[in-house]
Amino acid sequence: MTKVKKIPDKIPKRYFKVSDSIFHQTIHILLNHTAEQYVQFLNRLKVKDVIDKTFDDFAGFTTAIEITDKPTEWVIYVKEFEWTIKNQGTLIHEIVHAVIRIWQHNNIPYNADTQEFLAHSIANLYEDITRKLLVKKK
User: Which of 21, 26, 29, 59 is deepest in the core (most CB within 10 A)?
Assistant: First the structure.
């Protein structure tokens, strides 16, 4: 008997970590968090510096964070996430930013010669994130 995973109707506040497929750098995923909860997240991790400090009215963002004695880590934040095309588009938009920033941080050019790797990196990260979203907590 094959187990079928059902896409949940409503997604609660979620936090988990994934890694990019090339450099294995940590990416923190925050979905359905408030600005206050984001600040609590930063405080919990003892983040010493947030590279992008603006927190305007937006659907999501990607930023790098510095934590004492650790390599640079990354954050993908999506303010409101459900299984709608619009929200998935926002998530994919932020994944593209994250992958490009990770590549830039590691001095990897993104151009016509590397576009296939770039596309795979984006797709792999999307698959890793959605796989985590479809796992039921016991």
Answer: 29
